[in-house]
Design goal:
By secondary structure, the chain is an all-alpha fold. The protein is built from 16 helices and no strands.
């Protein structure tokens, strides 16, 4: 294991995650041409779709860590069963999620203070939710098995098609509905392709012991993610009440934040895969080597990512926020996002290793504490002269709390492992 090999694993996953987020960003930019009313509507529904995807992303992470561990053991039959049962759960949970959202969708326009057209966009996107969920889990499986490059190319082609078709449907006057249909069609094509592609590495046989193993990790991973989605939900509602200009800027900043977090998540998932494989091998020296390499590559990447985010932010602003009033608000909040980006990438070392050793219980507890702090600070500062700046300061505090809680947890686990090793040697 060396830095080059780790980058070869992490970078394609990171870029794929970013490109996946670009699918939504492209929709947002295309809709921004229509006006702030449509921009606010799609921004609000992006939050809902993000919450819907939470449980599917949870299955994806659970499947990835379990497959990585079995890959270390070279147990390919078990890998097939884990992947197949993960996909069975994915389809079941997707259908339940769709039913729940259909029942509560009438409250969304009032809740987010946006136009009722938001539900038109949402209903169309629901038609492709199962397909999108299948793509998420099967992409994760293929990446873990070492096919990161193929998945990356697939995502790039999808985004290019999405961009071209979005521009076309907006120009032809199909508006927000046309943009939503484009995404559904592309998700369906990707799902069919990946289903066929992964057929040899997936066995769709219901296995109760494996289902229990998946669900045991799923429950803590789900809690970790749900509290984050809840605080983002509150985050958006607070800003939506400040005014149309503030919320339009917030929607764009959220999209950029999602891109940054997607890259960091993907980069971290590459490390998580390496740690998971190391845990399967059960060789301490190999695990230490993986950790050392992870620390080195993250140190290098942390110098680059904030600069890239700044460049993306300026390009997006020039396209979507053309009036001086919108740009002024944007410039006030952007520095906070850039500082938080640096904190997030440096924290990835701790996040990725804790996921790789499947410490989902701590990650859930950490997210609960940090999200609660974020909600309290955001709510208080939203009603001060700081306004949207105060809300985004809460995001920076949230990032710092997550980093240092994770750092302390990993240090404690390493000390405990060292203590057990020393105790074993003394008995010998």
């Amino acid at each position: 294991m060396n830095q080059k090999k780790q980058l070869k694993i992490s970078l394609p996953i990171a870029f794929e995650y970013v490109i996946n987020i670009f699918m939504t960003l492209v929709d947002t930019i295309a809709v921004s041409i229509l006006g702030t009313k449509e921009l606010g509507a799609i921004g609000a529904m992006s939050v809902i779709i993000n919450i819907m995807q939470m449980s599917i992303q949870t299955i994806n992470v659970t499947n990835t860590t379990l497959v990585a561990k079995e890959l270390g053991k070279k147990d390919h039959d078990r890998i097939k069963l884990i992947s197949g049962n993960s996909l069975i759960l994915t389809v079941i949970i997707s259908l339940i999620t769709i039913l729940v959202v259909v029942c509560i969708k009438p409250i969304f326009p009032v809740l987010f203070n946006v136009d009722a057209i938001c539900n038109t966009y949402l209903v169309i996107r629901l038609m492709g939710f199962v397909q999108n969920s299948i793509v998420t889990v099967l992409s994760g499986q293929q990446r873990t098995l070492g096919k990161q490059g193929n998945i990356l190319v697939l995502r790039i082609l999808a985004v290019i098609c999405n961009l071209i078709l979005d521009i076309l449907v907006v120009k032809l006057g199909y508006g927000i509905e046309g943009v939503a249909f484009v995404t559904v069609v592309l998700d369906t094509i990707l799902a069919i392709y990946l289903f066929i592609k992964s057929n040899r590495s997936t066995q769709y046989t219901f296995n109760m012991p494996i289902i229990k193993t998946i669900m045991n990790l799923f429950k803590w991973n789900f809690v970790e993610r749900i509290v984050t989605r809840v605080d983002n939900f509150v985050f958006n509602i607070l800003v939506s009440r400040m005014g149309e200009l503030e919320y339009a800027v917030h929607v764009i900043l959220i999209q950029i934040k999602d891109i940054e977090e997607a890259f960091i998540q993907g980069f971290g998932d590459g490390i998580t895969i390496s740690v998971g494989v190391a845990s399967g091998k059960r060789q301490k020296h190999y695990m230490n080597e993986v950790k050392q390499i992870a620390k080195k590559v993250i140190t290098k990447v942390s110098m680059i990512i904030p600069v890239v985010v700044l460049i993306i932010a300026m390009i997006v602003m020039c396209i979507s926020l053309r009036t001086p009033e919108l740009q002024l608000i944007y410039y006030q909040v952007l520095p906070i996002l850039l500082i938080a980006t640096y904190v997030n990438i440096t924290a990835t070392y701790y996040f990725a290793i804790l996921r790789g050793i499947r410490d989902f219980k701590f990650l859930a507890q950490r997210n609960f504490v940090s999200s609660l702090i974020k909600i309290i600070i955001a709510t208080i500062l939203a009603y001060t002269p700081l306004g949207i700046i105060g809300v985004w300061l809460s995001y920076l505090v949230y990032s710092l709390v997550q980093k240092y809680m994770s750092k302390i947890q990993l240090q404690n686990k390493e000390k405990n492992e060292e203590g057990v090793t020393n105790e074993s040697h003394s008995e010998i």
